[in-house]
Amino acid sequence: MRCFILLFLGLFSINATGSNAISCGDAMSVGNEAKMALHSQAQKRAQKAIEQFVEKKLTKPYINLLGQRSNAKAMGALIEVYWCETPSTPLHSAYYRYYSNNKSAFK
Predict the structure, then answer these.
(1) Paired strand residues for 63
(2) Residues 65-103: pLDDT tens digits?
(3) Single pTM value for the model
């Protein structure tokens, strides 16, 4: 199964728009294990970018709408439902916007 996920990540690392980003549509169109791998990759990319931008570390990388600690699966669902504007939205951008609008992730 790991080989499948690595192959899948390789195939979707360049999506139809030619960008080097996994889209929300990519994540929503696969099974749970692959979805979690895509979300994990996107979350890490967004976390690195937001930490560089605000020059602070995220203390709660997985949070819910109330700013409370969450888990990766619940946050992935939250991102897909509320922060993926279109299927072509880069998944890491949805995470980045979420962190940008939730200061509690840094407290």
Answers:
(1) 69
(2) 888 999 999 999 999 999 999 999 999 999 999 999 998
(3) 0.79
| Per-residue three-class SS string for the chain | CHHHHHHHHHHHCCCCCCCCCCEHHHHHCCCHHHHHHHHHHHHHHHHHHHHHHHCCCCCCCCECCCCCECCHHHHHHHHHHHHCCCCCCEHHHHHHHHHHCCHHHHC
User: Token pair of 43, please?
Assistant: 């979350």
Q: Which residues contact 77 (CB under 8 A, 6 or more apart)?
A: none
Residue of 33, 88, 106 whose CA lies nearest to 9: 33
Structural domain spans, the chain? 2-106
- Measured between alpha carbons, how far is 29 from 100 in angstroms, rounded to an integer? 26
Strand pairing partners for 69?
A: 63
